[in-house]
Amino acid sequence: MSKVTLKVIAKTLGISTSTVSKALKNYSDINEETKTKVQELAKKLNYTPNSFAVSLRMKESKTIGVIIPTMVHHFFSNVIEGILKEAERNNYMIFLMQSNEDFELEKKQIDLLLSKGVDGVIMSLSNKTRDFSHLQKVIDSNVPLILFDKIAKTINCSKVLIDDRKAAYDAVTHLINKGYKRIAHFRGDLNPQNSIDRFLGYKKALLDHNIEFDPTLVYICDNNSDFSDGFNSAEKLINDHGKNVDGLFTVNDLIAIGALDYFNKNNIKVPEQIAIFGFSNWFMTKITNPSLSSIDQNALKMGEKSTEILIKEIDYKHKGIAYEYQKIILDTELIIRNSC
Fold first, then answer.
1. What is the pLDDT of residue 285?
2. 310 and 327 share a domain?
3. Of 26, 118, 124, 230, whose Cβ has the fewest other Cβ atoms within 10 Å?
4. H or E element that contains 307
5. Is the dihedral of CA 340, 148, 124, 127 positive or negative?
6. What confidence tens digit (pLDDT) does each residue in 275-288 have?
7. CATH number at residue 68
């Protein structure tokens, strides 16, 4: 069966397509009898508007491209929920892509989204992204770009993030205030800005509380910061320092859970012998044994706010109104559980 169009409805009723269009949009200059006839026939024929044709007329696709490093991370799943919620509220469709922490794939995905004519792009960078020319390409194409969580400081666009340095500082300070002094840090790769900032927050908390920074207590987790990184780094930590360490702050919860698994399997009591503080507040942190203290990043709000700003910039662009880039810093919260 061929698709029902405005022309089909108009021909059936013996009126113009413009009259049909106005009747379906409930314009006041169309009489009520005509509106009723048009709307009833449209319903009977299962008429749906041609969104592609509307997009061509409006010079917008009502689509947003979203690129995230991974979908299995609890933080990103919550961000996506926020993006979808706000996009749906504003009648936008989402193209969701996963870079899998692969810089080359991330570049290809940018090209694909631009070729599809998306109205804007929301993304969090991969851990391997060191060149930002593909981001500049988005901006040069006059497509609004929002970066969240893992950002590029040198790219001039709106950004939504947390104060990673302060959050890490607060977590380590909590450990210190509870009496822990030899605190290790399992950090992310050397490149992502949030990994850098969490390390700097850890280091500053130690120095501000007159605890000497020991670089041998810092372990780099470069295997996409996963469970095995935490387990293996915990083994190295104990082999290197034995009982001469009583606290651990990790760059994310998955690493913290990996470390906890190692400690549990080797009869190292948490928090009696070593306390653990994670980052992201995964749902799993509530059910580990013991439950893990963590930092809530307000991920749902991050997704909603990123989309809200992007849609505003898209709207301003179509109206020819200049807009200023925004940098939104969302609040975080320490979630204290039994691991410290």
1. 95
2. yes
3. 26
4. helix 299-319
5. negative
6. 999 999 998 999 99
7. 3.40.50.2300
Residue 338 domain flag: no
Cis peptide before 144 (omega within 30 of 0): no
pLDDT of 206: 98
CB 225 within 8 A of CB 250: no
**CA dihedral sign of residues 13, 17, 19, 23:** positive
The answer on 314 and 192 residing in a single domain is no
Residue 326 has pLDDT above 70, yes or no: yes
Residues constituting the chain: 340
- Asked if 185 contacts 202 with a C-beta cutoff of 8 angstroms, the reply is yes
This prediction has a pTM of 0.81
Residue among 180, 170, 141, 171 at smallest CA distance from 157: 141
* Amino acid 1: pLDDT: 46
Strands 294-296 and 333-335, how do they pair? antiparallel
Q: What percent of the chain shows pLDDT beyond 90?
A: 74
Which run of H or of E encompasses 305? helix 299-319
